[in-house]
Write a structure and sequence with these properties.
By secondary structure, the chain is an all-alpha fold. Helix content is about 70%, strand content about 0%. α1 packs across α3 and α2 crosses α3.
Amino acid sequence: MPDCGAALAALAGDLPAPVLADLLGISVSAATRWSAVAARDYTDYLAARTAHPPH
């Protein structure tokens, strides 16, 4: 069986935790933890773009 972590993280990044829980039949708390794992934080990217804007 392939590792499903990447697929689950991708779903968790795109769906609200309650929807993910209902869709996959997992608890809302488990879905919330996956959502936290998949959280996308763009602050470093934005800071770098501000410091070094494209030409």
